[in-house]
């Protein structure tokens, strides 16, 4: 366990790891306070692209956790960074109004009608998804436009059950137009690279904590970062018995990580 105590940067998933809907998971605030007390870094690295960063800051404050914008890393952040690197400025975007505003504030032109010139289709966790949005995106996808998705999660965990996430939307478009997107969020490396830049740390100094094997844990395995699975969200003990994405550590929740860190 000394291996964990020597880490200097902790990257936490949110849904199913720090909270479920509007309910903090026991031990979360204690663990974050202990990391700060030790002079180490933490950030929330979430695939959930349904909310703007401002909304995450407001939610964390409402839950009693004080964080800065730097300490919230979303798949939207990584998607924006990638699009800028590729010089893609005109996008067909499926997103909530709050996230759409983030793209506009970063200088992107949102294409909402069929038959216009566009650089790519961007799929995020759009809780306002309509048939017209689906049809518009489909029309551009069948014409071969580059296709990007913020993340691949099939379900978003709630306090009671789940709701369909971007992975479910990806499956819909795959059925309709036989296209698969470039996925920017976890489990790919883009968000880890963003965290390394923000906090000026190396991979061996970092640890990823999350409740999903195919995103959180796979990110650690692919990126060479220590990975901890918590059983407070999507992953169950039965899933752990039948997975190739084997975490370095498994705990019931973040409370057990706090117990280790405070010793």
TrEMBL record:
<dbReference type="InterPro" id="IPR036412">
    <property type="entry name" value="HAD-like_sf"/>
</dbReference>
<dbReference type="Pfam" id="PF13344">
    <property type="entry name" value="Hydrolase_6"/>
</dbReference>
<feature type="binding site">
    <location>
        <position position="13"/>
    </location>
    <ligand>
        <name>Mg(2+)</name>
    </ligand>
</feature>
<dbReference type="GO" id="GO:0005737">
    <property type="term" value="C:cytoplasm"/>
</dbReference>
<feature type="binding site">
    <location>
        <position position="211"/>
    </location>
    <ligand>
        <name>Mg(2+)</name>
    </ligand>
</feature>
<feature type="active site" description="Nucleophile">
    <location>
        <position position="13"/>
    </location>
</feature>
<dbReference type="Pfam" id="PF13242">
    <property type="entry name" value="Hydrolase_like"/>
</dbReference>
<dbReference type="GO" id="GO:0016791">
    <property type="term" value="F:phosphatase activity"/>
</dbReference>
<protein>
    <submittedName>
        <fullName>HAD hydrolase, family IIA</fullName>
    </submittedName>
</protein>
<keyword id="KW-0460">Magnesium</keyword>
<dbReference type="InterPro" id="IPR006357">
    <property type="entry name" value="HAD-SF_hydro_IIA"/>
</dbReference>
<dbReference type="GO" id="GO:0046872">
    <property type="term" value="F:metal ion binding"/>
</dbReference>
<comment type="similarity">
    <text>Belongs to the HAD-like hydrolase superfamily.</text>
</comment>
<keyword id="KW-0479">Metal-binding</keyword>
<feature type="active site" description="Proton donor">
    <location>
        <position position="15"/>
    </location>
</feature>
<feature type="binding site">
    <location>
        <position position="186"/>
    </location>
    <ligand>
        <name>substrate</name>
    </ligand>
</feature>
<dbReference type="InterPro" id="IPR023214">
    <property type="entry name" value="HAD_sf"/>
</dbReference>
<feature type="binding site">
    <location>
        <position position="15"/>
    </location>
    <ligand>
        <name>Mg(2+)</name>
    </ligand>
</feature>
<keyword id="KW-0378">Hydrolase</keyword>
């Amino acid at each position: 366990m000394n291996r964990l105590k020597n880490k200097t940067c902790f990257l936490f998933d949110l849904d199913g790891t720090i909270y479920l809907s509007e309910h903090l998971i026991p031990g979360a605030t204690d663990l974050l306070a202990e990391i700060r007390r030790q002079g180490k870094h933490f950030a929330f690295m979430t695939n959930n692209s349904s909310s703007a960063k401002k909304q995450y800051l407001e939610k964390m404050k409402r839950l009693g956790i004080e964080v800065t914008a730097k300490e919230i890393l979303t798949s939207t952040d990584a998607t924006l960074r990638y699009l800028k690197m590729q010089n893609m400025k005109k996008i067909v975007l499926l997103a909530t109004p709050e996230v759409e505003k983030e793209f506009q504030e970063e200088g992107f032109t949102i294409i909402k009608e069929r038959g216009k010139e566009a650089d790519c289709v961007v799929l995020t966790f759009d809780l306002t998804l309509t048939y017209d949005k689906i049809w518009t995106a489909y029309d551009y996808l069948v014409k071969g436009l580059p296709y990007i998705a913020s993340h691949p999660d099939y379900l978003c965990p709630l306090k009671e059950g789940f709701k369909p996430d971007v992975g479910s939307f990806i499956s819909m478009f795959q059925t309709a137009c036989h296209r698969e997107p470039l996925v920017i969020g976890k489990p790919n490396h883009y968000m880890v690279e963003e965290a390394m830049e923000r906090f000026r740390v190396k991979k061996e100094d970092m640890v990823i904590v999350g409740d999903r094997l195919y995103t959180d844990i796979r990110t650690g395995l692919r990126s060479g970062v220590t990975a901890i699975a918590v059983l407070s969200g999507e992953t169950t003990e039965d899933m752990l018995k039948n997975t190739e994405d084997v975490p370095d550590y498994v705990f019931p929740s973040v409370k057990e990580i706090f117990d280790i860190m405070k010793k």
